[in-house]
Amino acid sequence: CAAASAEAISVCAKAGIDPRVAADIIGKSGGTNHAVTTKFPNLLFKGKQFNFALNLMEKDIGLFNKAAKEANVPAFFGNTTAQIWKIPMAELGETADWMEVPRLYEKWADVNLSGADAEALRDLGNAGSGVSHSHKHIRKRREQDEQQISQGRKN
């Protein structure tokens, strides 16, 4: 779910949608998952690490793929996920943090997801906004993004 969510949120961010809003909307839809409701808002958008090594997750993905093979059940997503996990492991080593997977999509899409909360607050601060205005601005932007997503047309 994390890789698929990072991919979806990166596409949204590239289209100009606030990644925090995209995660919130996905988290309230049929695409909801633990990554968008917990890991991204509490860790990725705050610029924090997950403190879980890539090789440990790769092991779990491998166990799933092995079970699927033994049961003679196709595991298209499991196998694709295993391949995605190998990329940051090859670039940064097996013990690199799990958050390197979403960062791959940041790099590929040329967007910023890591630290998105701090970036939004910094942007508001640079505009000379006060705290109460900042909250209103964020809420208004979120409402606009949600409306445009629901209409299927965000430029």
Binned strand content:
under 5%
Mean pLDDT metric:
85
Structural class: mainly alpha
Level of helix content? Answer: 55-70%
Order of helices and strands: HHHHHHHH
Task: Give the N-terminus to C-terminus distance in angstroms.
Answer: 26 Å
Number of helices: 8
Largest sheet: none
Number of strands: 0
The coarse silhouette is: globular
Give start-end ranges of low-pLDDT stretches: 128-135
Q: What's the Cα radius of gyration? A: 17 Å
What does the model show?
There is one protein chain. The protein is an all-alpha fold and 155 residues long. Helix content is 70%, strand content 0%. The chain contains eight helices and no strands. The longest helix has 20 residues, at 131-150. The two termini are 26 Å apart.
Distinctive features:
155 residues, mainly alpha, 8 helices, 70% helix
At a glance:
This protein is mainly alpha-helical and 155 residues long. It has helices at residues 2-14, 19-27, 34-44, 54-70, 76-92, 100-109, 116-126, 131-150.
